[in-house]
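In response to reviewer comment 3 from the previous cycle, which asked for concrete evidence that the modeling workflow produces usable outputs, we include below a single protein chain processed end to end. The sequence was submitted unchanged, and the resulting structure tokens are shown without manual editing.
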Amino acid sequence: MVDRIVVGWNESESAAAALDWALKRAGTTPVQIVTVVPGQETGSDYLSPTSPTSQARVKLMEAADRMRERHPDARIDTQVVRGAVVEELTRASVPGTLLVVGATPRSERRGLFGWSVATRIAGARTPGTVAVVPSNVFIGVRSGVVVGVDGSAETPDVLEVAIAEALELHEELRLVHAWAPPPEWQDVYVPDLGFEDSLEDVHQGVLDDAVAAASQISGLAIRESLISEPPAVAVSEAARGAAELVVGNHSSRGVRRFLLGSVSHAVLRDLYAPTIVVRS
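The workflow returned the following structure tokens.
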């Protein structure tokens, strides 16, 4: 359950879309808008009206006032912190918090996306949940909550969040499981005729288990898709036009704690829908 929403703010178009998206869904949930000013804090930050921190605070308060006019019932407060953007926003991701950051879809950006601020935050190993919102979120009609299920240990957590989102938004829950024979099969040997069918049955079983779990929820509309494509491709394509996409974060400990799994990274690179990344 989300009892607080934190939104990263940097005056960009994608941050504005993310903030608007967060406020539209917040209801009575408190929303905190956070600006991170790079560098270490000094005493002059608060004494000088022209310091980066003071200027950022004024701009943030102005943005908050504009949002209060658009969302008069919203509970909004602001915070300006000094430090590294990824680390400071990640610090705000605690249990019960939805951390929302904006990003530009690949179709609208120049150059490589790689490990952007949004993907690094989404991949960080923290207790909270992260939503990455595309700057074009309000363009076109969106419907359905898509969830990628892979049979991993974190699938129940991901499915639980997706079900809650579908119920909250009054949207259909679309469960997607994708698989593809490893490409080396074609180079090394040809498997028995029935082997691929047997493998498909195994993957169908993974999807069936997720559908069975979701079907226990009364009043939830469900659609299932078993897709014979690489998972990253299948989940990204399923997210086109979706109200939301929910995926797991397969991050690790140690030096890999800021890395997403390949499927989650791919869907954030394409970013066809607001994407909620769930930690186990």
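The first strand starts at residue 4 and ends at 8. We consider this sufficient to address the reviewer's concern, and the full set will be provided in the supplementary archive.
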